[in-house]
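New to this. Please check both lines:
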Amino acid sequence: MLTEPSAGFEPPAAWSREEVLAASDAVLAMVPGAVTESEDIFRLSALGLDWDIGVRVYEPQPRATIAAGADRKKVGILLLHGGAGDYKSMDRFALLFAERFACKVVTMTFPGRLYLDDESRDWPGDTIRSDGSVRTPIWRRGEHVTPDQYDLVEDASKRMKYGVRRLAPDRASTTAWRHGRSPSSAAYRKPAPAIFRSMNSPSTCTAIPPAGPISRCCPSASQTLPA
């Protein structure tokens, strides 16, 4: 159980390296508690589109042992991965909170980045394939962006910073193109470049354009997919 802070407690302004290492060693030395892991995939309908959202749940066992905060409510933590990847990059952090501190943890994968075609959630192959096709998001089960729906182009305009970027603008008149220009989704799109970018790295995916089912993420950020 988490303990309440004493009255007048103030955290130190700085920790020395030795103090940080000692605290880390103390946490890692704690006996891990029992934790169950489960997956929950649910569908949301918004902006005229369906989204399959996947989360991983880490729950201390028995449930009565879940830590409570100063307000007597059970402690829950939501973890999100960074600009690339999926929930797996947060797995060690989730287990640390759940096993050592008895907190219930949920890790969420950004829409499109969870590989729904296999229970392992491991994306097959590389982001840019030898046949010229590229990895594209899966926004809902059974929906795939096929190579005939996009073109693959190279952009060297910011080569000093990103190298040569591979871009995948969707083609006009395809299902993806028409869907992205529906009245409900048009209101969601903000001004953005015609195509998104992705860094020219094996660990990132091809860029996705800000329209159509292959680009339902927030159009104010660049797109990457888990390696």
Q: What stands out?
A: Residues 17-109 form one domain. Residues 37 and 58 are 5 Å apart (CA to CA).
